[in-house]
Amino acid sequence: MRTKNYLFGRDTPRKTPGRAVCYIFIFLKKENKGCRFHHSRRLQTTMISFISLKICNKILIYLRQYKTKRNFRQSPQIGYAFRKFVSGIYELAVTLGDHYSIRHETMKDDYFQPLDVNLTGDIRHHYDEKNVLPAHELVIRPLLEKSTDAFVYRGTKDEYFLYGKMQVPIKLEEIDILIKDRGKFKFDKKKECILGNEYLWNATTWKRGSIIFILKDGQINFSELFKNTYRPGKSATPNSGNNASATKKCREEAEKGNIAICLPASNGLEWMTIYAKGDIFKDIIEQAEKNCNEKDYYKRKK
User: Looking at residues 253-264, what average pLDDT do you find?
Assistant: First the structure.
């Protein structure tokens, strides 16, 4: 059956709302040029708990009004409609969250927020990925030498166009300082892993996956380490910009009483995220508050 599509102004095949939702994610993935979407169990639970049937029906009505087309390149107008749709859903979620006090009431017991600290200051992730950065010797080397294990995960598989050029994923299996380890790669700490390998550490936009360090309590002096970092703050979105398997590994290590530190796949060396539990995490927070630079950065931003 064919029906008139008012978005495109011509006849197009009828699409189901479910398929339309799939197309939204396909479109957003195209818009983000290779950025990955990770399913958060906490987010799914929140959506199921707080999105009412009436709201879902409104979403389906909206999707029926704006039917999708398979080839987005032939129909660039769909971009505006989808962005408008996603913006509306975001505003709805914020309103719903404020109304039900989701963060403060329903998640306070099971929602762990790890600590983020910035490693590059004002330049953030806008650096030449082949350059030597101060964080290599001041932060990365102490973590690598003191850690019991260090791993890097895979990034994207295919090349993609972003920031005016083709982005080529790093082939981790071709790097001699890495050893395959059940779907990820382990750093061979018997070799020099930093000098000459700056590009691996600095790479952004998922050319490599997340990098994690596993440490025992007391293996690293955070009071000294934090003197070379900036802008401490708890992360409300720890899964964002990281491999789901990497953040899962960090949480598991924290439950074991260890410390896990994660460098993002999306932003390279811009920040590191620290996972720990109990008194260990409280002590890390205290050291960050005492020793990090620009401690009031986010307060000034408000």
Answer: 97
**Which residue pairs from 10-15 have beta carbons closer than 8 angstroms and sit at least 24 positions apart in sequence?**
12/67, 12/69, 14/67, 15/67, 15/68
Distance of CA 196 to the CA centre of its chain: 26
Instruction: Report the predicted TM-score, pTM, of the whole model to 2 decimal places.
Output: 0.65
Among positive and negative, which fits the CA dihedral 92, 95, 98, 100?
negative
Q: Which residues on neighbouring strands pair with residue 161, listed in sequence order?
A: 166
Give the per-residue pLDDT at 156. 92
Asked if residues 254 and 260 have their Cβ atoms less than 8 Å apart, the reply is yes
Q: What are phi and psi of 21, to 5 degrees?
A: -60, -40
pLDDT attached to residue 61: 56
